[in-house]
Amino acid sequence: MKRPKVPTYGHHKPTGQARVYIGGKSHYLGEYGSEASRIRYGEIVAKEVSGQPIDPFFPKKVGSPLPTDSAGLTINELVLAFMRHAGAYYVKDGKPSAEVHCFKSAVKPLVELYGLIAVDQFAPLALKAVRQAMIDRPKKKMCRSFINKSVNRIRHLFRWAVENGMASVTTLQGLQAVSPLKAGKCDALDHQRREAVSDEHIEAVRQRLSQQHRDLFDLLRSTGARPSELLCLSMTDINVSGETWVADLEDHKNAHRGLSRKLFFGPKSQLILRRLPATGPLFTFKIRTFSAAVKRACIAAKVTPFVPYQLRHTKATELRDTMSIESAQACLGHAQPSMTARYSSRMDKLASEAAKACG
């Protein structure tokens, strides 16, 4: 069953009232733009998107009494305090990291719907209303997994508030009760799962890349590294004393968890590295430029477009199927074997062979 979309906070210009139009009826909220009207709008939206009936005695006429304000720290004030904290905490190379931008995206519908209510009045139904607003966003649709992550970021905001005495534990416990969106059980989009790329398609695409882009492309295929790990690397970061060259990365995805990350370069990778600059970055272009080049090459080669990160999937599948899950985990730098377990086509092959023999 399709869920209702988030109704719009509207302006009834003849009377100067704010109103929301639901079920063919106008519900008047008070003076347009006022704190009281915003608070009441948030309450109605929470009930509407969760399927609960709106109070039948709620005024449908102009001039009826409405709540005036709410005591305590507001959502707006909490978000402002948290974003100041995030700007100082989530920093990479002296600049705000991508996580700061993700938090900004997550709190935007929260502020728009409930910015003026008290922090401890933000209940599970309100969180579901915020989530529905993410689903209904008209431009640049969010996928289900990103919406779930955004909701988790909002919960993180309230966890930080509890830690710093800005919200009650009861409020956080209520928000933790909201289940994540399930595949096929909601209106949110699901992006197609990224799969390993065949060697045939890889070869067709690499032949259409410039030499610089091809060098990075080949290193990604041979090492299973993330593009960001190679783009920040220089030859001075690589220990070339042994048979296998090793780069011990200081800045990587799991560095904040206290985990190490090493890249290992065998004979094929070393041939590529030998012709790259001995000083300064190995590559001077950015990931967006490289991704765009790969996409153009895919189109030129008439293969299904893929992103550079999928070469990591290809390497992981190859190692898991030909060697072991431990080998793949070590090469890819996964903290948990469960992450590596996703990369394998061997089970499909075995099932296919069993079906041929016994099915």
Q: Cα-atom Rg, whole angstroms?
A: 26 Å
Strand order of the largest sheet: 1-2-3
State the name of the first-level CATH class of the largest domain.
Mainly Alpha
**CATH third-level topology of the largest domain:** hpI Integrase, Chain A
Which stretches are poorly predicted, pLDDT < 50 over at least 5 residues? 56-70
Helix content: 40-55%
- When the domains are counted, the total is 3
**Strand fraction band?**
5-15%
Average of the residue pLDDT scores: 80
Task: Write out the CATH superfamily name of the largest domain.
Answer: Intergrase catalytic core
Q: How would you classify the helix and strand content by structural class? A: mainly alpha
Question: How many β-strand runs?
Answer: 8
CATH architecture grouping of the largest domain: Orthogonal Bundle
Amino-to-carboxy terminus distance: 37 Å
Taking the sheet with the most strands, its summary is: 3 strands, antiparallel
How would you summarize the topology of this molecule?
Blueprint: E1 10-12, E2 17-22, E3 25-31, H1 35-49, H2 75-89, E4 91-92, E5 95-96, H3 98-114, H4 124-135, H5 144-163, H6 169-176, H7 199-206, H8 211-223, H9 227-231, E6 238-239, E7 245-249, E8 261-265, H10 267-274, H11 287-301, H12 310-322, H13 325-332, H14 337-340, H15 346-358
Antiparallel strand pairs: 1-2, 2-3, 4-5, 6-7, 7-8
